[in-house]
Amino acid sequence: MYNKACDVIELCEKENKKISEIGILKEAKMRNLPEEDVINEMKNVLEVMKKSATLGLETPIISQSRITGGNALKINNYLKNNKSLSGNLINRSMAMAVSTSEVNASMGVICAAPTAGASGILPSSILNAKEKLGSSDEDVIFALFTAAVIGELATKNATVSGAEGGCQAECGVAASMAAAAIVEMAGGSPVDSFNAASFALINVMGLICDPVAGLVEYPCFLRNASGVVNAFISADLALAGVQSLIPFDEVLEAMYKVGKSLPDTLRETALGGISITPTAKEIARRFYNGTAK
Amino acid sequence: MKDYSIFDVIGPIMVGPSSSHTAGAVKLGKTAMELAEKNFYKVIFYLHGSFAKTYKGHGTDKALVAGILGFEPSDDRVKYSLEIAKSNNLIIEFCETEFEYAHPNTAKIEFHYLNSSVFYVIGSSIGGGNIVITNINGDDVEFTGQYPTILLKYKDKKGMISQISTILASNEINIASMKVTRSNNLATFVCETDNIITDKAKEEILRINEINIAKFINPVRS
């Protein structure tokens, strides 16, 4: 039905539909199911996301490796003291993104979006947009389809794998998906959604994947926190009427080319970036000597 | 261009932290368990490459054991699989090893029995929660477990494939891929199908005299 963002925009205009409705239509057609079944399937996704985004807010969650944890709780407690500089929405969003990242690192149940490593960004974005806008669960479920359409375009035309494209392909695409989704929730047009998706990806173009000790923990949870903020500011820019000079299709292609030209050491191998700092090496050494035997 | 489902992008719902080291490992364990006789008392996991290096940090050990206990990749009991295995009196061992020419995320899963010889399965987790099984008890094979799969061993003889495919067709089961290899007059037949393999089709295949070993695997959900 569509391979490119320009196809999606054309379909939206021709059928007078939102991006989410195009996504639902495509999924129902592809799997030969009634639209209602496809929407119900997304309800399960939302339930998993609600749980993972809130579990870490009240109790500390420690990772499987015991290297990181308890940070969602810290951010949430800090917020309660009303000392936050960047405000409620941003801090609450960061706390909820980190919560899902912590659930993931502790072997809890998450929904990959588009990957497990970047799974904190989308749930936090849509749930905090829901809170802010007073949207219904149904609006949120539709927004998830919008996010999925963006992620599908990235999967088809570029990559969402950190090993292939670096963190820009995981947390960058996740922020792009989230930005488009929350624009739709706020009443923006399909074009506004794609503008927001472009901004989010441009903001982190070139971001490398450099996990300490090769584990999906650090700096992953930080990039989930900054990813949700990236989604919100990109959405705001688009809703303010700022236009993306470069269409989303071309931004995706650029991201893919950048990913391919990144050296191996900066693509999930733990051979570059933060992962080879003396401290990271010491953490990795202690971890593998202490527990890998 | 390949068509993706919306739920390939937002999904799978899985136990973290890594689709290849955790979700894929659960699938690998579960597929191996479905190939094995069920009364095993001990399982040894030989881990190669990145599996050997990072299995504790990614919970690959817990994921593999969850698989042989029959859990799905989204089951929140995956985390506690080692304790659950212990309370079921199942002995679990892990062994870091190196296989030649193997994918970085490869495991050999060896099932031990009191009254019969060991049985093993080798497979790799190839990304995004997908797996490939490459060897069963010394026979090279190649299947992903994404499709219903039939695995047969029989004395090589003319007309076997036609007998099997006739049974499948009469049961409305379409063949997606098929591979037959031979050693010492014994043929190993692996076939992936588009449709679930029904009990009736299984019974009819098992009635073919020459078949020594038959396994039927329906896909692991994710």
TrEMBL record, chain A:
<dbReference type="Pfam" id="PF03313">
    <property type="entry name" value="SDH_alpha"/>
</dbReference>
<dbReference type="InterPro" id="IPR005130">
    <property type="entry name" value="Ser_deHydtase-like_asu"/>
</dbReference>
<dbReference type="GO" id="GO:0051539">
    <property type="term" value="F:4 iron, 4 sulfur cluster binding"/>
</dbReference>
<keyword id="KW-0312">Gluconeogenesis</keyword>
<keyword id="KW-0004">4Fe-4S</keyword>
<keyword id="KW-0479">Metal-binding</keyword>
<dbReference type="InterPro" id="IPR051318">
    <property type="entry name" value="Fe-S_L-Ser"/>
</dbReference>
<protein>
    <recommendedName>
        <fullName>L-serine dehydratase</fullName>
        <ecNumber>4.3.1.17</ecNumber>
    </recommendedName>
</protein>
<comment type="similarity">
    <text>Belongs to the iron-sulfur dependent L-serine dehydratase family.</text>
</comment>
<dbReference type="GO" id="GO:0006094">
    <property type="term" value="P:gluconeogenesis"/>
</dbReference>
<keyword id="KW-0456">Lyase</keyword>
<dbReference type="GO" id="GO:0046872">
    <property type="term" value="F:metal ion binding"/>
</dbReference>
<keyword id="KW-0411">Iron-sulfur</keyword>
<keyword id="KW-0408">Iron</keyword>
<feature type="domain" description="Serine dehydratase-like alpha subunit">
    <location>
        <begin position="15"/>
        <end position="274"/>
    </location>
</feature>
<comment type="pathway">
    <text>Carbohydrate biosynthesis; gluconeogenesis.</text>
</comment>
<dbReference type="GO" id="GO:0003941">
    <property type="term" value="F:L-serine ammonia-lyase activity"/>
</dbReference>
<dbReference type="InterPro" id="IPR004642">
    <property type="entry name" value="Ser_deHydtase_asu"/>
</dbReference>
From TrEMBL, chain B:
<dbReference type="InterPro" id="IPR045865">
    <property type="entry name" value="ACT-like_dom_sf"/>
</dbReference>
<keyword id="KW-0479">Metal-binding</keyword>
<comment type="pathway">
    <text>Carbohydrate biosynthesis; gluconeogenesis.</text>
</comment>
<comment type="similarity">
    <text>Belongs to the iron-sulfur dependent L-serine dehydratase family.</text>
</comment>
<keyword id="KW-0411">Iron-sulfur</keyword>
<dbReference type="Pfam" id="PF03315">
    <property type="entry name" value="SDH_beta"/>
</dbReference>
<keyword id="KW-0456">Lyase</keyword>
<dbReference type="InterPro" id="IPR029009">
    <property type="entry name" value="ASB_dom_sf"/>
</dbReference>
<keyword id="KW-0312">Gluconeogenesis</keyword>
<dbReference type="InterPro" id="IPR004643">
    <property type="entry name" value="Fe-S_L-Ser_bsu"/>
</dbReference>
<dbReference type="GO" id="GO:0046872">
    <property type="term" value="F:metal ion binding"/>
</dbReference>
<dbReference type="GO" id="GO:0051539">
    <property type="term" value="F:4 iron, 4 sulfur cluster binding"/>
</dbReference>
<dbReference type="GO" id="GO:0006094">
    <property type="term" value="P:gluconeogenesis"/>
</dbReference>
<keyword id="KW-0004">4Fe-4S</keyword>
<dbReference type="InterPro" id="IPR005131">
    <property type="entry name" value="Ser_deHydtase_bsu"/>
</dbReference>
<dbReference type="GO" id="GO:0003941">
    <property type="term" value="F:L-serine ammonia-lyase activity"/>
</dbReference>
<protein>
    <recommendedName>
        <fullName>L-serine deaminase</fullName>
    </recommendedName>
</protein>
<keyword id="KW-0408">Iron</keyword>
<dbReference type="InterPro" id="IPR002912">
    <property type="entry name" value="ACT_dom"/>
</dbReference>
<dbReference type="InterPro" id="IPR051318">
    <property type="entry name" value="Fe-S_L-Ser"/>
</dbReference>
<dbReference type="Pfam" id="PF01842">
    <property type="entry name" value="ACT"/>
</dbReference>
<feature type="domain" description="ACT">
    <location>
        <begin position="149"/>
        <end position="222"/>
    </location>
</feature>
